[in-house]
Specification:
This protein is an alpha/beta fold and about 200 residues long. It is built from 3 helices and 10 strands. The strands form 2 sheets. It has a 5-stranded mixed beta sheet with strand order 1-10-9-8-7, covered by helices on one side. A 5-stranded mixed beta sheet has the order 2-3-4-6-5, with helices on one face.
Length: about 200
Amino acid sequence: MKRTLSILFTGFVFCFSAQTEISVMCYNTLTYPQGSIADRNDTLKKILEYSLPDLVLLQELKSEAGFLELLDVFNSFPNSQYEAGTYVPQISNPSNDWRLQQNIIYNYAIFRLAHEEVIVTNYRDINYFKLYLFDALLDEGADTTFVHVYNTHLKSSQGFNNEQLRLQMTEVMIEHIDNLPENSYVIAGGDFNVYTSD
C-alpha cells in the first residue's frame, strides 16, 4: 500500500509524524520566463510572503535560466535556504514545438535530494524526485523518511485524443509508483488539466 496524496494548484500541509509538518504548493508558471505578463516575480513574492512552502512543484518552465531566476526569488527572503532539482529540457515527444518542463524547489532546512529522474511518456515528461527529511528533524534513532514526488503537466484541451494522452501519461506515472517500496510516502501533483468531474 502506498501513501499517496494528489494535488492540483493548491497548497496543503502533509504530516509525516506528530512532530513534522511539510507545506507543499503547486504553481503553474505559464511558460516562464517567456510571455508578456508584467511583474510576475513581484506577484510570486507576494504569494510567498503569505506562505513560504517547504516544497513547490512548478510547471511550464521554458528554460533553465528562468528556473534559476525563480529559485533566486525564493532565496530573496531572509534566512531562506532553497535548493532545486536539476533542470533537464523536455525529452518526451521531441517533435513537439510546445516544449515545457516541470521541476521542484525545496527548503534545504527540511529536505535533501536523494535521487531524481525524468520519466518519458508519449507527450510530456513526468519529473520524479526522491527527497528525504533532513536528519535534524527526525527523532533520535528514527529511520530516514523518504518522500517520492511526481510532478506532471498532463496534456491540455478537451476531446477524446487529448483525454487518451492524459490517460497514457497517468498510467506511466502509476506504473512507476507501483514499483516503489510498500508504505512509501508519495506526492503526485501538477497541472492535471481536468475539465469535468468525470
